[in-house]
Design brief:
five-stranded mixed beta barrel, OB fold (Dihydrolipoamide Acetyltransferase, E2P), Helicase, Ruva Protein, domain 3, alpha+beta, DNA polymerase, domain 1, 9 helices, 199 residues, 3 domains
Length: 199
């Protein structure tokens, strides 16, 4: 099994990197967080790898942080979640946000991720709540009930990242948007945030 790769980025497509390791190109599927932080073509990179073996394929999934790799491995242990959907979950939500959502049992926030329905979100919470709290890379998170503004902020970040915006860019637009609203609704705030990003 391949545990990690260190090499240069030979090619970069959405959710996929080709890593050149001494002349051998490894195709690695990655979440958007890793994709955006990986650097440009030609940059050096080290990825933690999960090797997924099926009868008809051997696929590599890569992560910049050990926490992300462990979250991925916990997610694919949930009934009904395969590697592709686990990557979608990690692409739609920051690792720390995912930990907080699962610990709070915030099913509504999880269903904001494309491909995650209510039943799947409930299974993630039920099967992973205790297991994620024990992750070595997971610091304790605030599990206080999420308020309306926090929920809208999380939903906006998820939506903007799914539209292809880099997380720091999305966070800046969302924060600027929410500062102008006392009781934001998701639909109105999304329109304002998109206008902010187009400036």
């Amino acid at each position: 099994m391949i545990g990690f790769l260190r090499g240069r980025i030979a090619d970069k497509q959405l959710n996929t990197l080709i890593v050149d390791v001494q002349g051998v190109g490894y195709e690695v599927h990655v979440p958007l967080s890793t994709f955006y932080d990986a650097g440009e073509q030609g940059a050096e990179i080290t990825l933690r790898i999960h090797t997924h073996v099926r009868e008809d394929a051997l696929q590599l999934y890569g992560f910049l942080t050990e926490l992300e790799r462990q979250l991925f491995e916990r997610l694919i242990s949930v009934s009904g979640i395969g590697p592709k959907l686990a990557i979608a979950v990690l692409s739609g939500m920051d690792s720390r946000d995912l930990l907080a959502c699962v610990q709070r049992g915030d099913v509504a926030r999880l269903t904001g991720i494309p491909g995650i329905g209510k039943k799947t979100a409930e299974r993630i919470v039920l099967e992973l709540r205790d297991r994620l709290a024990q992750l070595p890379g997971a610091a304790p998170v605030d599990v206080a009930p999420v308020n309306g503004v926090d929920r809208v902020r999380g939903d906006l970040l998820s939506a903007l990242q799914n539209l292809g915006y880099h997380r720091p860019q999305a966070e800046k637009a969302v924060d600027a948007t929410l500062q102008t609203m006392s009781e934001p609704t998701f639909e109105h705030a999304l329109k304002v945030a998109l206008r902010e990003l187009m400036r």
